[in-house]
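Standup notes
- DV: blocked on the single-chain target, sequence here:
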Amino acid sequence: MSHLLCSLHDQALKLSRQYLACEKELLEILVKIDAKKVYLEQGYASLTEYSQKALGLSRDVSWNLVTIVHKSKAVPELKHAVQMGVIPLSKARQIAPHLTKENSQKFIALAQAMPREKLQEALAKECPMIPSVEERARVINATQAELSLCLPKEVMEKIRRAQDRVSESQKKWVGLAETLEQVVEFYLQHKDPKEKAKRHEVRKIRATVKAAQPRRTVREFNAAEKKLEWGSKSLPIVQTKDRVPIPAEIKHEVVNKNAHRCTYQDPRTQLRCEKERFLHFHHKLPVAMGGTNALENLTLLCSAHHRLEHYQSSG
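- DV (later): unblocked, structure below
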């Protein structure tokens, strides 16, 4: 081997050792940051958001580190194994979902002895009830995406039943992709706050048109009143002592106004949060300080940014 090739090899070895050392040190500092909730002080809602936005780590690297940080609270042996160089971060992330205090030594030994592919097979045999396939969703092209996940057998059977029903309704064989599309569409039509808010707007328009029409007879009015009374009994309204519940009509208005999306805006980038799940109704002026359920005093925040908002306001 020439002197040049040996020199390049030596440089690669040196940088590789430095990289692995930095990886361990970064894990250690993230454990401390998570314990002290430093990311909240820096204005980030979670350790994952802090890792990606503040530290500039990729999604995969950030996910690996944060998963190990959180699992290390229950199983400190995992963090120790990474810091001692027994296993790399990628394998630590691989065994983390299956790890407990009881099996930690066994699984860390497996991760140390096996390549990733063999380790995946061993995990599937050792923990047959725990999904060993990592959930992934990636865009293939402008119109298609690929989804990979592990499902309980019972859920797969339900999807097959749904596939039969969709095929019957369309009078042709329908694949799993189209079946999932139909099922998701049906669910969103009934559960998505956006769709509920749209229906609320339609009802308002119909009510306005109906109000302009001639009044109903006394008999029709009494029948409608009885129907309304019966419906109210099946859906009791629970009152609280300290605050008045936000009326459904106002909730719909807030959802429409904010397109059912978290309204938190990052003060650094001015970018709005993109989350549309686990949204909370947030009073801009707290109820304890006289805030009301008026539309202009309400907004939507995801659970993480709702927690951050209260943390910052209380500090």
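- Follow-up: The radius of gyration is 27 Å.
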